[in-house]
Every structure is written in C-alpha cells, then in structure tokens.
Specification:
Blueprint: H1 3-17, H2 24-38, E1 52-55, H3 82-92, E2 96-100, E3 105-109
Antiparallel strand pairs: 1-3, 2-3
Helix pairs in contact: 1-2, 2-3
C-alpha cells in the first residue's frame, strides 16, 4: 500500500473514531501515531521519529486559500477534514503544521 492509500485509509477511520477520542493520549494513539507510521517512521522508537518533516517534491497546489478549512474538499468523495484535523492535532500537542506552495512543502513540527 502506498502513502496516499494509507492516508486515505486513515482518513476513512476518522468519522467513526472522533466521538471516542476524548484525551490527548487517545488523539495521539488513534490519529497522530498512525499518520507518522504512514510516513515510514517507527513510532515506537523515540530516536527515529523526528519533530520536523520537510517534503519538497510535487507540482504544487492549485487552490491554497482553503487548505485548512474544515470540510472543504475538491476531491470526489472527500470529507475535507485531513489537513484541518492534522493541524489541530499538531497544535494540541504544542506543535504546528504549515504548507508552502513551493512544490508543496509540508512542515510538521512537534516538541521533543
């Protein structure tokens, strides 16, 4: 399964999980750690998971105004919660998620 498929799979779980996630620990276990795992990191090795991700490949984004607007999507069948929820999770853990439209650079910063 490639990265995009894994992220879509994780996003598909969110509607069922949201009503059961009530703590930061549950948020981390249900949403953050699976996403970091999908990026290819061993989430059980604190020396392997880095607090910053920089991805600079890709054609860029056509519409950047609504990237973090909850429930906004341009994908057929999309729910539009991925980036908004990801940023909210990062901020709840004292971090940040930003996107730059220079080939689509995503930066996830989490405190160590």
């Amino acid at each position: 399964m490639d990265f995009a498929d894994r992220v879509y799979e994780l996003a598909g779980r969110i509607p069922q999980q949201l009503s059961h996630i009530r703590t930061e620990e549950a948020t981390k276990n249900a949403l953050v750690m699976p996403f970091i795992g999908a990026l290819g990191y061993n989430v059980f090795d604190p020396l392997e998971v880095t607090p910053e991700l920089d991805a600079e490949e890709g054609p860029g984004l056509a519409n950047t105004e609504n990237l973090f607007v909850p429930f906004y999507t341009t994908k057929p069948g999309g729910i539009g919660i991925g980036l908004a929820l990801s940023r909210q999770i990062a901020e709840a853990h004292g971090g940040s998620l930003t996107l730059e439209n220079t080939g689509c650079e995503a930066v996830l910063r989490l405190p160590v």
